[in-house]
Amino acid sequence: MLANVIALIVVAAVVTRSAPSIVPSRPTTNASTARKTALAWCKHWGVEVKAGIAVLFKAVDDDYSTDNARKRDIHYRPGSKPVAPDWDGGERECGGGLHFSPAPAMALEFNGVAKRFVACPVAIKGLSIHPNGTYPQKVKAKGCAKPVYEVDR
User: Fold this and answer.
1) Mean pLDDT of successive 10-residue segments in the chain (153 residues)?
2) Model-level pTM?
3) What does the alpha-carbon distance between residue 151 and residue 102 come to, in Å, rounded to a whole number?
4) N or C: more exposed end of the chain, with fewer CB within 10 A?
5) Are 100 and 58 in contact, with CB atoms under 8 Å apart?
6) What is the dihedral of CA 46, 56, 107, 36, to 10 degrees?
7) Residue 118, strand partner residues
8) Residue 112 near residue 61 (C-beta atoms within 8 A)
9) Half-sphere exposure of residue 37, counting CA atoms within 13 Å on the CB side?
10) Following CA atoms 134, 45, 30, 20 in sequence, which dihedral angle do they give, to the nearest 10 degrees?
11) How far apart, in whole angstroms, are the C-alpha atoms of residue 79 and residue 146?
12) Cα Rg for the chain, rounded, in angstroms?
């Protein structure tokens, strides 16, 4: 009996390791599917979406920027609509765009010394999702659809 159980465990492990992944490892290029993926991401993380705009968050320093953003002269000053000068079309998970979190406190993971938080209205159709990436809890986009505004943590 014990030998049968061990054999079953071994077979299950081999099948699991060799099974192909059914989740795409790259963002989709189909706009309709991309919107559905972005909407699903927003729903999963509790991000409110109104009229195709998701309000996402960024943890920033006193000058409304971050170490990485400052190098590219990107600031998230209230009233501004930041745009990434290095947008890569959503290909890479990190770099090549503006990065956002679903909640202010979650944005601290990417800037632990932040002094301020900004809400960033971003068009759903422009979000790049990387569900199998290192940071599935963040998204990126080329820019903000509406002016950013300061929020509390």
Assistant:
1) 44 37 36 66 93 97 95 96 93 91 95 96 94 88 97 90
2) 0.74
3) 13
4) N
5) yes
6) 60
7) 58, 150
8) no
9) 22
10) 50
11) 8
12) 19
pLDDT digits (tens, 9 = 90+) for 93-102: 888 999 999 9
CA distance 115 to 24: 36
Distances (CA, A) of 95 to 1, 29, 83, 85, 146: 54, 18, 13, 11, 22
Query: What is the distance in angstroms between the CA of the first residue and the CA of the last residue of the chain?
Result: 57
Tokens of 68: 């990485």
Pair of tokens at residue 94: 């990190």
Q: In sequence order, what are the residues at sequence separation of 6 or more whose Cβ sits closer than 8 angstroms to the Cβ of residue 108?
A: 59, 114
* Neighbour tally for 152: CB within 10 Å: 6
Instruction: List strands edge to edge, sheet with 116-123.
Output: 49-50, 53-60, 116-123, 149-151
CA distance linking residue 148 with residue 153, whole number of Å: 15
Q: How many residues does the chain have?
A: 153
83: which residues sit within 8 A by CB, 6+ positions away?
Answer: 98, 142, 143, 144
